[in-house]
Each structure stands twice: as C-alpha cells, then as structure tokens.
Design brief:
This protein is an alpha/beta fold and 162 residues long. The chain has a domain at 78-147: Ribosomal Protein L15, Chain: K, domain 2. 12% of the residues lie in helices and 13% in strands. It contains 3 helices and 6 strands, in the order H-E-E-H-E-E-E-H-E. The protein has helices spanning 59-62, 96-101, 132-140; strands at 78-81, 93-95, 111-114, 124-127, 129-130, 144-147. The strands form 2 sheets. It has a 3-stranded parallel sheet. It has a 3-stranded parallel sheet with strand order 2-4-6. The longest helix is centred in the last third of the chain and has 9 residues, at 132-140. It is elongated.
C-alpha cells in the first residue's frame, strides 16, 4: 500500500488539537492569551450583552413597544352585495334610506356595495361607497350609480413663505 492509496479518515475520527493559551511567549498566545492589554474585555467573565450594537441604539429599542392602529380615522361601512338587489323592480332609486327601511343595513353606517350577485334590471343607485365590480355590473344592466357625499377634499392653500 502506498501513501496515495490511503483513504482519508472519516470526519470525527481525528481530534483537532486544542491550542493551550497563556503558556509562554513562544507559544504565540502567551502572556495576555490573545486578549490584548488591560480593560473590561481582557478580564475573565466578560460577556458582551447580546443585543449590544457598539453604543448605537439597539434594534429592540428602535422598534415600537406596541402596535399601531388607525381605527380612530378608519371608516366603517355597512357592506352589502348586489345579490340583495336582485328582487328590486326596474327604475327603483336605491339609496341608503331605501335599504334601511327594508332592514338591510344598520342605522348610522354608510353603505358600501360589493359585486357578488347579478343585477338584471336598470336601477338608480346612490350609496356612500362601491366596488369596481359592483359599478360595472350596475352600469352593464343599464343603471346609474352615484356616490353620495363624495365631494373632493379641497386642498389647503400653500402657506406664505413656504
């Protein structure tokens, strides 16, 4: 058997030699054992805090403690599908009041119309909000859709010197 025919030993069969530190200057890691000169990091027992980022504001303090919720400014709608309007006769004007009289929506909430269902007759619909698919189906049936209270917000005049 030649040296070239020898198989490499399987991993884990040979132990990696442990380098003993602080055993004389000739060892390469004598005296201070690779820890440098004096200071906190040279002492035994020193362990840097896990999230320490060199004095920079750590990531866990950059994140908010609690979540953010825009509920104060969110608009709630009474959601209705077009399937509710399937039995309404042609030419009827469907408004929020019309839907409230028939107990289809709760009082106080603006109405949003969604496109699930079919409209076979022309209706005049006036609601506060509407999905694109609902609008397309109402107009395809020959009806009209008006968004109530949808006045565009007036832009504030630019400030002087700004």
């Amino acid at each position: 058997m030649n040296l070239g025919e020898a198989k490499r030993l399987a991993p884990g069969t040979r132990r990696k030699r442990v380098h003993r530190r602080g055993r004389g200057s000739a060892s390469g890691t004598g005296k201070t054992a690779g820890r440098g000169a004096k200071g906190q990091r040279s002492r035994s027992g020193f362990a840097r805090r896990r999230p320490f980022m060199g004095g920079q504001m750590p990531m866990f303090r950059q994140m908010p403690k609690r979540g953010f919720n825009n509920a104060r400014f969110a608009r709630s709608f009474a959601v209705l599908n077009l399937s509710v309007l399937e039995g309404v006769p042609a030419g009827t004007e469907v408004t929020s009041e019309f839907l409230r009289e028939r107990k289809l929506v709760r009082d106080g909430l603006p109405v949003k119309l969604l496109g699930d269902g079919e409209v076979g007759v022309a209706l005049k619909v006036r609601v506060e909000a509407c999905s694109a698919s609902a609008r397309a189906k109402i107009e395809a049936a020959g009806g009209t859709l008006e968004i109530a209270g949808a006045a565009p917000h007036a832009k504030a005049a630019p400030r002087a010197g700004a």
